[in-house]
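Q: Predict the bound structure with zinc ion.
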Amino acid sequence: MMGRTHALSGALAWLAAVPVLAQDRLLHDYAVHLSAEQVLAGSVVCAGAAILPDIDHHNGRIANTFGPITHHMCKWIGKLSGGHRHATHSILFAGAMGWAMDALATHYVYAWWACLFMIVGLGLRGVGLDFEGREPQSALADCALAAIAVWLMHKIDMSFVGFAVTLGCLAHVAGDCLTPRGCPVFWPLPWRIDVPLIPRTDGKVERWVVAPLLSVGIAIMAVRSVLGDVTTRWLTKG
Ligand SMILES: [Zn+2]
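A: Predicted complex:
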């Protein structure tokens, strides 16, 4: 699947998870009620994380972000992880990425902000910040907007980032499982899971069915989340 479709699937996964996380009856003391700002920040983080598993692709979204540096990095990660769509396309990788973000937040807070900046940049680029064919302009605009977004995020409680990163990676793996090549979801176990509903990357099904459906889903869930937050604030004020 294309980077943009993955990013959209990450944003939708987050917006679908938010109402579930808020279920007091289901989760009791573990229920989490997020503000509209947190929901929005989480959408961008989850969208960016939904591109992360393709860090094993020498010519993917991540590889082309900062020229030769990211190109070589992705090439080596691809080699070390067993090639494209191997270790990084698994539940283990998704969990490890979320855990790593939480560990950085606790022990290396500046590294955490740097990783957050990268993930937010990927998310913004993924969901549409792209001037077709104008690479330097796209990269510059992305860096500037990601810096502003991360600066705004420092004012809110971002303790959900680890969860959002894991969820985004899982959304990516689920999306790739819908293509003929599938993913080794339970890596290091060798089985690949594939339910090939999307016959070709960037084909008609992905462009004209999957991406529009994801966009409509995001719009509906975003309005629902924001309206829910505004109503709650209004009721608690009254
Ligand atoms: Zn992938």
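A: The pocket of zinc ion is lined by residues 53-54, 85, 89, 172, 176 (CB under 6 Å).
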